[in-house]
Structures are given as structure tokens and as C-alpha cells.
Amino acid sequence: MWEYTEKVKEHFLNPRNVGEVENPDGVAEVGSIACGDALKLSFKLDENKRIKDIKFKTFGCASAIATSSALTEMVKGMTLEEAMKVTNQDIAAYLGGLPQEKMHCSVMGKQAMEKAIENYKGGPPTEPAAQIICECFGVTEREIEQAVRENNLSTVEEVTNYTKAGGGCGGCHDAIREIIERVRAEAAPVARPKLSNIQKIKMIEETIDREIRPSLKKDGGDIELVDVIGNRVLVATRGTCATCKAADITLKHFVELKLRDFVSPELVIEEVTT
Amino acid sequence: MKTIYLDNNATTQVAEEVLDAMLPYFRDLYGNPSSMHSFGGQVGRSIREAREQAAALIGAQPEEIIFTSCGTESDNAAIRSALTAHPDRRHVLTSRVEHPAVKSLCAHLSRQGYRITELPVDKDGILDMAQYERALTPDTAIASLMWANNETGVLFPVEKAAELATERGILFHTDAVQAVGKIPINMKANAIDMLSISGHKLHAPKGIGILYVRKGTRFSPFLIGGHQEKERRGGTENTPSIIGLGKACELAARNMDTENRMVLRLRDKLEAEILSRIPNSRVNGTGPYRLPNTTNISFEFVEGEAILLLMDDYGICASSGSACTSGSLQPSHVLRAMGVPFTMAHGSIRFSLSIYNTEEEIDFVIEKLPSIIERLRSMSPYWNVGDQVCSVQ
Predict the structure, then answer these.
(1) Which candidate in A27, A33, A139, A163 is best for mutational testing of the B interface (most B CBs within 10 A)?
(2) Could you tell me which of B386, B296, B279, B275 has the C-alpha nearest to residue B340?
(3) Out of 1.20.140.10, 3.40.640.10, 3.30.200.20, 3.30.930.10, which CATH number does the structure's domain B16-252 have?
(4) What pTM was computed for the model?
(5) Which tens digits make up the pLDDT trace of B181-196?
(6) Catalytic machinery residues of A
(7) What value of ipTM does the predicted structure carry?
(8) Is some CB atom of chain B closer than 8 A to the CB atom of A239?
(9) Which residue in A102, B42, B171, B244 has its CB near the most CB atoms, within 10 A?
């Protein structure tokens, strides 16, 4: 049996925003019945170009349904630019984590969101015809590249967990290995300007305010920055986070990743009690 | 919440009588049956009785029964023994729908240079016997076909298959783990050389199995050690479990007819009611040759794991051949071999009953399942409400 978090189970048993939006501004369908999961997403914008209504229909396992539900909750009220920035890691973190083998469900959510936004903007951007790498599950080179890049994947098995590519006949394993090597070679460390401690603290505060706190608040939680010592970011959990069993997962997989993205890749989150 | 256990092909509840028979061998009668003192010797006598009980269930002679640790060990021992007994032969004949205990072993042997033939099945899960016959070659060391399929309950004509193999001087093994205790088996009336049994599928505990080896069959042990089991399986006997399995075999022999009539009636009721109440559902592997306790039903446009978890919420236990439940990304190899369309394969549920199920339990499942399927279909992008004929088959 899969070890699903309470939040995954809760979203599976009581999914939010099931259905189809009437007269949608953007729609997308990803996955297929042959693959074992598929997601149809539709949304409508309000006068401020924020997502007013978003609904899903999903064929798939419990985690596919839960990630669809979570995605719709997360992006409601966002601008399309903000929604575009929601990564599959964010979706998984929102649910308190997913089993590795089920990470492809969160990737499916991310892909559906991107595709629906592309649909709103008038069809997919002109790009060279997507090359299918995994014939069994119809996974393209671009999808594999993106998953490797965004999730820092390094093995074929991980790519299969995140995209399903390579999970069928196994004929594409060599091709996947090549993509991993290529993407990882590209991802040479980006030279970032060295931050002074004051700058660093300021950026951390800003990132928490802008990128982290709104998500936590949705669940009645919060965090407070206590201190920054070198690359150690000391935070205290507040509200529901303080009593939540999954809080350390959220800190590691959501808060830390955000801070690394926006401030410095060396940062490490530590929880302190005050 | 009450548990409604309809997953008896996965494992079964240990019978009260079996547990009672076992307990003294944990507490007081802990002697080693190989010992010279009478304290151990009395345990040896009990094991002899258990061997007789097991032999009686399948019409075998007691010395043809080797106690093992599980069905998987029995399968491995049988196939590997055949290869050792015929080192000049490099071919193993089997089917595409075998249990992993045989299937994965054959894949392993293939990597070691053996030639493996996996016979296909048709949409009902049935073998083409003419094709089977053609695949028996002078190079074939052993043919191994399961008696009853664990996912669908479909029975292979293993007695006929054994005859055809024996005529050609080829050993025949059957994984009868799902069949023993559910259908009558008489080894005196067939030509099967080796047969695997698993205790926990017939109300004995886990961790005990049997390999039947016909008298006169060349046998090379899988576990080499002491002289136990007439030097055919080393290792100190798992006394309590052997006693338990003996008791379970005795119970099965005594009750098989009545039990199966009852189980068959409940299975048929469950199957018929589900099919009539839930549109776009169908049975995988129908036909007359099927275990009385198993039905494998597909629900189109919904996914099996989601069904299982919603049933779990009501305490209903079953299993699925969907990709998501297996941890792999493809639906069960059995359903794929039968050519079950993807729209159906991902939404397959196996219900497997036992004597401990009641009419009330079956009625409860019949009552709850339609709304579970309906709920998931209302979320499915492939299902339009009121559209009951949109099957892509």
C-alpha cells in the first residue's frame, strides 16, 4: 500500500473544484487513458486577469486526483505569470509530499497548467516538433529535459518516477540517460553575486513574504525568520504549522527550495523553537 | 469498522482449527523431529501425520510431499531441479500469465542462456493447446503451467498438458497454489511430475509450502543441507506450520464440496449484481473453466487504485491489476496478455472469496460499489454522464 500523507488522502476523498468551467478562457488535456492517468483542466480569469475559477477532471489513481485538486486550490487567485511559476515540487509540497513513484502525478498537474495557459495565449508557442522519446507513454524530449532540470534528477529510475518515460518496454533507457547527462552538463553552477549578510536577510524576508507565506497561510500556518547564521536559516513554525506532522517536509521541500531558488542555492533551513 | 475481506487469492485467514493444532508446537512440543530422544521423536510422528493429510488432499503418496517455505520456493525448486536433471536441455516452456515466482525465474534463466517460450493466451485467458504441443521440443527440459490463474481464476488444462509432455519424455510442473483446496485434484489420475502448493492460500499460515514430486522423478534439491525431507530439502522443519498446513489440507478435503458450492453462489451473485448495476463493466476471463471463488471485473474509464481506496474507506478489501497499484507503470501482465483494452485494464478489480465470507458482506459490496464507481466516473474526463455506450472497444 502506498504511504500517502493525510493531506493527499483528504484531497482524494474530498476533491476541490471537480468539473469543467463554463466558457473557459483556457483549457488543456494531458495524459491518456492508455497511460493510466489523464487530466483535463479549464480556467476562467477575472477582470484583473487573475484566475477566478479553475476546475479539473481526472482519470487516475488517488494521487493523480489529489494533485489535481491541490493544483486548482493553489493557483486560484493567481495571475497567469504566477501560476506558470508553480512547479511540480510546489504541488507535491502543498500535499506534504508524494511517494517517489507518484511524482509523475505532480508533473502532470504542472504540464496541464502550462498547457492551459498556452491555450489561453493562443495555442502552444512555436517550437520544433516535440520528439517523442518514450513511445510507450508518449513522453517528449522537452518533458524529460524539464523534469530533469526542475527536479535535479540523475537516474533513469527517477525520470520514470517523475515522467513515466522508460516505465514500459525500457527501450528508451539509453536515450533518457543521454538527456540526463546533457541537461546536467548544462546546469553548470550559475555565478551569483556574493551577498552581504544584510542583503541576504533582506532577500530571505522578501521571499518568505512573497513566495512562501501566502501558501502557508492558506492552511492557517506561518513561519517566522529567527536568525541567519552563514547559510543556516533559522525559522520557527507558527499557527497550524507548529503542530503539523508534515511541517518538516514543507520546510525542506517547499520553504528551503524557494529560498534556494530566490536567494542562494547554499541555504539550509533549520527549525528552532522560540 | 468491520473488514470485508475479498482478497483471498492474496492470502487467507488462518482457520481456528489450524491455529489450535499449531499452538502446542510453539509452547510445549518444541523438540527437533530429527532428535533421537522421544521428546523430539513425537514431533516427527506429528509431521508424518501432516504429510499424510497433505497427500490425501491431492491423492498423492506421503513420500511425494516435500515441505518447503512457500509457493515461490516450490516453483524455483521444481524448475531448477528439472534443469539440473537434464543438463543437456536448454529450453523451458511456460505461459505469459504465470505468477512472478515462475515468470521472473524464467526471465532470470533467459539471461543465463536458457531458451524460454512464453505461450500466449486468448482474450478469455485460454491457452491454444495445439500451439503448446508444437512448442514441446526434444530440447525442452520442463514445461511449467499454472493450474489456476491468481488474477482471473482461469484454469489451464494442465492434466492434458502433462500427458502431452510425458509422452515426449518432458517433465511437467504446475504452480497449483491457487487451485489446491478449491478444485478436486487427484495425482493418481494424472501425469503431472511436480506441483507447487502454498499454505497461506488455504487457511494455513504464511511461510509454509509444499512441492509434490512424483515418485521416480529425478530430483535435485534446491536447499542443500541436512537430511530433512529425505535429503530433498535441507533445513530444520518448520514444525508448527507443517502441522498447521496438514490440518488445513484435512479441512479442505473434508469441506471442499460444500464450501465451494457456497463460495460459488456468493461469487456468482456478486458478479451478476455488479454487472447489472454498473454500466460499462465486464468480467476478465469468463468461461466455464474458472475457480469458484474469483472474479476479475473491469470498470471502464476509472482507475483501479482509486476504486480500491474508496472501497477501503468502507472496510472492503480487494486488489487491482491497474498500473498504479503494482508500482510499475503498466497494468497487470495477465490482463495485457489477454489483450484487455487499456480503458478496461486500468480499472480492473479482483474479488476473491473464501468460506468465511457471508451473504451480508456480499450484499454490502453490491450496495456500495455502484456509487464508488459513479463518483470516480463523475471526475473522469472520459466519462460523460448518461453516456453509457461510449466504450472504445
Answers:
(1) A33
(2) B296
(3) 3.40.640.10
(4) 0.81
(5) 999 999 999 999 999 9
(6) 35, 105
(7) 0.85
(8) no
(9) B244
